[in-house]
Design brief:
Radius of gyration of chain A: 25 Å
Structural class of chain A: alpha+beta
Number of helices of chain A: 10
Largest interface: A-B, 58 and 58 residues
Number of strands of chain A: 29
Strand content of chain A: 25-35%
CATH superfamily of the largest domain in chain A: Spore Coat Polysaccharide Biosynthesis Protein SpsA, Chain A
Largest sheet of chain A: 6 strands, antiparallel
Distance between the termini of chain A: 39 Å
Oligomer: homodimer
Helix content of chain A: 10-25%
CATH architecture of the largest domain in chain A: Alpha-Beta Complex
Mean pLDDT of chain A: 92
């Protein structure tokens, strides 16, 4: 069977302040439609149904990934969200996925896709994917997807084509041996690649039979391959998650390109003229978004006079722009970026600076999503924090307790069922309740419309990690379930 | 006696979004110190004590003006805040002040000062003011303050000097007849004025004996002068405020320059090389504020890389700027401005656009000051509004009632004395109370530290004008005092 492996890591720096460490690029919509992750799933499901998709994420991105999957409300079994215990580049997650899948299906074919690329047209992509999967099914080959370059891009790696493989090139796309992988070239070399017609952009997409991949791994990463086998023996046992953590702790910190593809002799490339975009920075939006007559890309609450060739992203607040040229302005709830397009790469420096100052704005948005809904911090000061908490219909928070803060809730929309020390109370709009420190409590929305509560927290310590959970609908760590599979989030 | 008349009108457009219609330039600190209004008062009080200062304001600016006066905590009687019932340019308020003052002091000398200029050095200004007041006391002359130009400025009006008046020029500064007032010139003429040395900048400051001013008014604005006399007959009677409203309704919509000075033959000018600045736009900040090595003026929460010659004003949120040149960026709670310095005059267009869209951001800040403290809107949506309300020590709001909203209060700092339908209740941190619709209520801070309350409003109509006041410490309109001298504000 064919499986899709969607790589959804990311550090959230390049599109800051719209992206954050907890909210990287794949969660954004860059072209005004759905999120890039959702777009990736939509693109592949006509060929590979969602129950055969694995989405490889870090612990920090699990909740938002699950939220996006829920939003899609697709019928049938959901995609699998595979939570990597830590980030070890790309070789490790692919090896783990291959090793797991080959046990239930020795002939499993894996199609590896990035979660944050834009690809069009859909029909051509599906034809390409189908041809690649069909070849991989029958041949002992690892297929890379090479995109015919349209400009001397210095931001991508390249694949140097070798011999044509005539038998496999009878489909729409031609297939070649790979002669060489080339790192990001300088301008001059990139221009030679264009005229030489022997090089393709390395899109990062791959298709292979799991068995072939694992064989190559045994040959070129024997130590890691051995550890991988140790891990797969624990699958579906109690020690599985511990074994996975061990595997990752000792896994090579290398990319699949460097750690395997550049060594293997079984690597082919399928050549395509797909419209493929790995939008790498704010300024690269110019390639994909619609512009007004003056060349501006404008979204949100913007009042704009005499601007030229700008990217202007407003949010709720008013963003007024006058007489600007070649600028990126991105206004969010808690941070504003104003940046010359030529310097868009330096957004990374800003994020690093914020991290070194321990600024939460590098990591999170002011609104945080949870499996049960979301909350926004409205105000905070010494000993208090005010939140707008929205609970989705028929959802509830964990049954929990805080050591250092009391909470006071006022319902402003919907109906709440509150559990306080085992007692159930219904609260309607305009009603309120006090939750003293060290009392067990739960908010539930039993209704059909969102429940909105204003929460006033008081106490000497107001961080999210002051929480003791007694039970939880989302398998997060509780007193009864100390390891908690739904890691990485509180409340 | 000598009196100071401080003109504190203003529309709040030029320094938007830091200034607003309700918060014009004189309330801002442009040089990082106290507000321009406070600076104006500080500058004049060594010569004219504050109880002899009249601050001429519109109804919208009364509360903030009084707040600034309270903040100064000067000993002795306070300055008088004269609330003009409507804005009629500059002739009317000066005539009214002169007519009122002349009744108690027939020899009253008035020094007219703008509230939003920067002037240095202090000693020279005081010497100038003293010389002008001394002359005005003895001569039938209206003295303008002419500043010797240092550049061919096209944004100011000019005064053409006539004959020297030798007897009055024995002080530090020379005094001349005024030959002519010149409107803002074009660049070429402005350059000629510089080389010709016959022209001075018209600073707008004036000194005159009230009687002289009124005599000239009788001659050149006889109709208005008659109405003025009708009004002054009602002074200290019940009909005074009504008569003032009538006077303003029919007053000429003209400036003192155009309506009187250009006609009068008694106008002199006192020539000075004072460092006088009427900072007219964001870009003009370049003249007054301190810069870093790259020529940037930076304030607030700014992360800045590779910027040149920019004005970067952050607030609470993070403002990240990269690779900018010659830009003004001003970030506030509810609005952000990004503007090329050469286009700073066009901020006016933005404000007009916002007004035409009925955007509150043209008028108010998200934090609103009241005589008893201030409040900030944290969040609002259909049928709810959340405020952080801060009540100053020993202050209280009016005893009031709302028809369309209930309120729920949670104390997060300080101690509150709540009156609800005649009952008094103390609330401490962490305690809360419900205020149903149509119940009479009052919040008071009886303590020594600020009282901070989170207010959750619920109802079908949540504007500030849903208020019925029963009594008020600040003479605002109540059921018992339907006209209310403290106009223009709610709550």
């Amino acid at each position: 069977m064919w499986f899709g492996i969607i790589m959804a890591g990311g550090s959230g720096t390049r599109f800051w302040p719209l992206s954050r460490e907890l909210y990287p690029k794949q969660f954004l919509s860059l072209d005004g439609g759905s999120s890039l992750l959702q777009g990736t799933i939509d693109r592949v499901v006509p060929l590979i149904p969602q129950e055969r998709l694995w989405i490889m994420v870090g612990p920090k991105h699990e909740a938002e990934t699950r939220r996006i999957l829920r939003l899609a409300e697709r019928e049938g079994l959901p995609a699998r969200v595979f939570v990597e215990p830590q980030s070890r580049n790309t070789l490790t997650p692919l090896a783990v996925a291959a090793a797991c899948l080959v046990r239930s299906d020795p002939d499993a074919v894996l199609a590896v896709l990035a979660s944050d690329h834009l690809i069009a047209p859909q029909e051509k992509f599906l034809a390409l994917l189908k041809q690649a999967c069909t070849i991989a099914q029958e041949q002992d080959a690892i297929l890379t997807f090479g995109v015919r370059p349209t400009r001397p891009e210095t931001g991508f790696g390249y694949i140097e084509m070798g011999e044509l493989i005539p038998d496999e090139s009878k489909g729409i796309f031609s297939v070649f041996q790979v002669k060489n992988f080339v790192e990001k070239p300088d301008r001059e070399r990139a221009e030679r690649y264009i005229t030489g017609k022997k090089h393709l952009w390395n899109s990062g997409m791959l298709v292979f039979r799991a068995q072939v991949f694992l064989e190559e791994l045994r040959q070129y990463q024997p130590e890691f391959h051995k550890n991988l086998e140790t891990y797969t023996e624990t699958l579906k046992t109690e020690s599985e998650s511990r074994a996975l953590a061990d595997l990752y702790a000792n896994a090579p910190l290398t990319s699949v390109d460097y750690g395997l593809l550049e060594k293997s002799r079984k690597v082919w490339t399928i050549s395509t003229d797909l419209d493929w975009k790995d939008v790498g920075s704010w300024s690269a939006l110019d390639e994909i978004a619609e512009k007004d007559e003056a060349g501006n890309i404008v979204r949100g609450n913007v009042v704009s006079f005499h601007n030229e060739n700008c990217i202007l992203y407003g949010d709720k607040r008013i963003l007024a722009t006058i007489g600007l040229k070649d600028l990126v302005v991105v206004d969010t709830d808690d941070a504003t970026l104003v940046c010359h397009k030529d310097e868009a790469q330096k957004v990374r420096e800003v994020v690093n600076e914020l991290k070194s100052r321990n600024c939460i704005e590098a990591q999170e948005h002011r609104t945080t999503h949870r499996p049960w809904g979301h909350y926004t911090i409205l105000d905070q000061g010494p000993n208090y924090k005010i939140k707008n908490v929205t609970v989705n219909p028929r959802s509830r928070l964990s049954y929990q307790m805080h050591l250092h803060r009391s909470e006071h809730w006022v319902v402003i929309a919907g109906t709440a069922r509150i559990t306080l020390e085992g007692q159930e109370i219904f609260l309607h709009v305009n009603q309120s309740i006090d939750i003293p420190k060290t009392t067990r409590h739960r908010i539930e929305n039993p209704g059909k419309v969102p429940l909105v509560i204003i929460e006033v927290q008081n106490g000497e310590y107001l961080e999210e990690d002051d929480i003791i959970r007694f039970s939880d609908d989302y398998q997060r760590q509780t007193e009864e379930n100390p390891t908690g599979s739904g890691t990485g989030e509180k409340a």
